[in-house]
Amino acid sequence: FRNRYWENQDYVIEIAKTFRQKEIPCDMMALEPAWEEEPKAMKWTEWSKDRFPDPQKFIRQLKEMGYQLDLWESGTAPFANVTATSVRDAWYDKRRGVIDQGVRMFKQDDPYPRGIVSAELEEPRFTTDKVTDEQFAREELENITNSLYSDTLFTNFRKQTGERAIVMFHAYNASVASHRWPFQWAGDYSTGYAPLNASLSGHAMVSYDLRDQTPGGIHNGFLTPFTVIDAWAYFREPWLYTPAIEESHRRNGCLRARLVPYFYSSLWQSHVDGVPIIRPMVLDHTHDPNTYFMGSQYMLGDWLLVDLTKSSDVAEGKTVIKSIEKFGVSSADEAEGRVGQVYLPEGKWIDYWTGQEVHKETAGWIEGSWPKYMGGMIWVKAGAIIPMGQAKNYESEKKDEIVVLDVFPGGVSSYQLYEDDGLTYHYEKGEYAITRITSQENLQKGAVRIGISQRQGQYDGMPMRRSYLLKIHAKNSPKRVWIDGAELPNVKTVEALLYNPDINGWSYYTEEKKAIIKLDRGWSYADPEAGKKPISAVPPTSRFENVVWKDDAKAVFNSRTVTLQMPTKPVL
């Protein structure tokens, strides 16, 4: 959450407390230029005495609530001899004091040095200010100065703290090789082609301000690599709008918190092979001309298709929407206006919210709806394996000792859950863990088999307890379920299964067409409340997904195999 320009210490703390009281997930509090005594001067030596009289206390209070602090900075940097390490080190040294105080993120809102004045993700325009260096021409320098300063910030922050720097740099800072440093902010965009183009250019983490305070805009903003609610000149606290908008923030924030293991594993995949987290449809469907100019939807990682209901797709001045197949609703009134259109590639797709399936022999547009507050459709590609954690108010609030595997069987598929300490560079030394998950569906035999490998590797702070809750998409209830060759009991209700630590087993959740399988005894969710199911696609808040372990619960770290015997004929 980015606070207003002239905000003060006491009010920022009140905003931070309110996020926690209202159970709206938030990890970062950000300050605009007026945190300094002289805004935009970038002297880095003096906090505003009036607005932030006790910065150390201020930072401590934020950290006690689970927040990190982000400071805005401008493009104030040396113009001369920028290729000299000593020049850039002196520029970095001014930041050492606030880093020692606990600041962990910087928003680089202007180029370095301030010579580029272009709009976001467009062709650069330059000022008449000269960037000089004895070794390079000005035209060469204009393409490398931002990279040099970004490299200096990341390298020296690492030397000073041993941690990964968190830097949000503006898209017009994105000079040569800038994809090496996360993360890129596409500025004041809400959606569209520009962030998708950046993804195609090798930027794994691209996002933009959440300025559309409607359920559709919130749906879009929370399903990107990072979410920024920018209130720098506005009153954008979620609770200052309607109760419905506040609830939309809460539910979408909790869904995002659940998805962190999937986001993080997708980011690791980007690190390994360069595939971005947000993927324009054309990346996987180059044979389909309809995807070439598609800004109204994208793939989030391998499995999730995110639909943005307000965008239009135009190619050569003509709409690419040819025909719409009705699905899930018969009229806009039945969904209270929550109706949109999505382009599904050929194959089997599952509506994330309802579990209903669509088999597309050829790609085409369909119409569908979504739950109240959620803001848009999410479709799941058949074969999907989506690792999820629990809803949290902030990421470090609790460890994911229970991993929820949301599986949508389809042929043979696999996914790797990646985990590390999330803080240091120890992953470069092999300090991380990988769990391989597989899914096999045999339609002739009516069998689904899920394999979970033994967790390979270790890292500091790794959960010492680990069990799994499986949510297997199934149009009909299984007949029988086995874990490691032993048959599991069928528990009458999902509630009885999830809130009793003394049993394991399976139950069928008719509402969302999923078999819920609890592999181990010894744990349960905290006390239930009506309508707050931790298995629902629309998540409850953090306190309803707290896991309670029995003292004598046994840790199970060996590989697991789950087999479901499904009906081979349709159930009438």
TrEMBL record:
Cite the DUF5110 domain residue spans from the record.
405-474
The biological process GO terms on file are: carbohydrate metabolic process
| GO MF entry, a single one | hydrolase activity, hydrolyzing O-glycosyl compounds
Glycoside hydrolase family 31 TIM barrel domain: residues covered: 5-69, 74-265
Query: Which residues belong to any copy of the Glycosyl hydrolase family 31 C-terminal domain?
Result: 274-307
Which Pfam families is this protein grouped with?
DUF5110 (PF17137), Glyco_hydro_31_2nd (PF01055), Glyco_hydro_31_3rd (PF21365)
InterPro entries, alphabetized: DUF5110, GH, Glyco_hydro_31_C, Glyco_hydro_31_TIM, Glyco_hydro_b, Glycosyl_Hydrolase_31
Q: Please give the family membership noted in the entry.
A: Belongs to the glycosyl hydrolase 31 family.
Question: What is the name of this protein?
Answer: Uncharacterized protein
State the organism named in the record.
Answer: marine sediment metagenome
